[in-house]
Amino acid sequence: MALALTRAPGEPVRPALRTARGALITRPSLVAAATVLLVCVPGGEKDVTAAVHVTAADVASLALVGWTTVELLRGRAPVLSRTACALFGAVVCAAAVATVTSIDPAASLTGFVRLVQVFVLVPACVLNALRDRFDQRLILGSLVLAALVEGAVGANQYLTRTGASYTGLPIRAVGTFGALDIMAMSTVVSFGLLAALALGLAERGPDGNRPLRLAMFAAAAFLTFPLAVSFSRGSWIACAAAATVLVLRADARLAVRAALLGLAAGTVLVCGIGIGSDGVTQRLSSIGSVSAAPDQSVSDRYDLWATALRIWQDRPVTGAGPKAFQQLRDSHAPLRLSSGSDTADATIGFQREPLLSPHNMYLLVLSEQGLVGMLAYAALFLALLIGCLRHACGGRHPEPDGGAGLAALALLVWVLVDFLYGDIGGATTVLTSVVLGLAARTALAGPDESGTAALLPSPAPQPAVDDAPAAASSGVRP
Fold it and tell me: Is the distance from CB of 454 to CB of 401 less than 8 angstroms?
């Protein structure tokens, strides 16, 4: 970012250091990065049946929204493009229609606020905050740092047997989130792994930063261990799909080498050294049997999907309303559906966590917001995916955006794949908003890396500066 020295007539020139410090402090991307890092703050024991959960990261995200609103009112923030406004506006309208026509509008109001926060306000503010390469790398760096913190805690939980219960043993890595948010650590670690991989790939070539490349690849390699011992099949599948798209987009030949290297590393770690071999092997084998011989958790998920479809069939156009699934679940679910999921760790002991969502974001939208909502979300997701595929840079030379385009593509693919068997909820929900904002920066703002030009409407022509004295001195009539 170029820093210009400014002065008023008759006043001395301001020091460049003060200008640089002021520009750094006023960057809204710092609040976005703080939102990511505050996800790691332990939330303590929480009532999973409560209508509203407010975390430290949620507070930071609301601060980002407030900051952006003030800057827009003062004319200091870039205006979103028409495409971005149309896509985000469609989601708001669909949620509003579903809330007004809900079976319980009062109960759906909190769901409406949460949907607007997660899919509209925070992504739009993150998009607004990412004004140059520094901002983008700052957010990606915060994702990597948060993943390293959670990964270190999770690895220690597995090695010292102080994690959540898995097959009767306290070995499941859950980070600082506890057994009640079993997917949170694997989500944070997956985001950090993909961000580190994208930053490392962007530094290839003669002009790349070799120490940064090695550091990012080392971080990605380390994060594979806590991801493995999270025993989260969903995160494994989503991370594998996202990493494949990332490496293929960066360099197809590199994808083959990376696949062989990953297979060799996994064989050494699991089969040779024996790190997590029993649990990981058992969990991997269960992925192939989810259709032929599903375990109880998979069977319950299938029943929840069927329940969501039955709710949608009753109100196909506008859905039952946000937060309505948990009210209608028992009246539409098959009798074999479990009452809850067993969770246990050293802090909370044994608890049964109620199944309050279909564990599929697309079916959740369909059942609660109907076809109207499904069309709005499909338009947003497809626009982001197509735009990221189009604008994410590949090749053997460092990216102009420092890997932000590749990272945005990979993170978005992770979210879209994870939505097939998961939905929003828990402490890491706000990270989904940040990822959507990163993807919007790449997809909707275009490949402009120099600043905010792609986010701004076309500027009006400016009057020419009066250069009459200069013209006269050179012998040319003004």
Answer: no
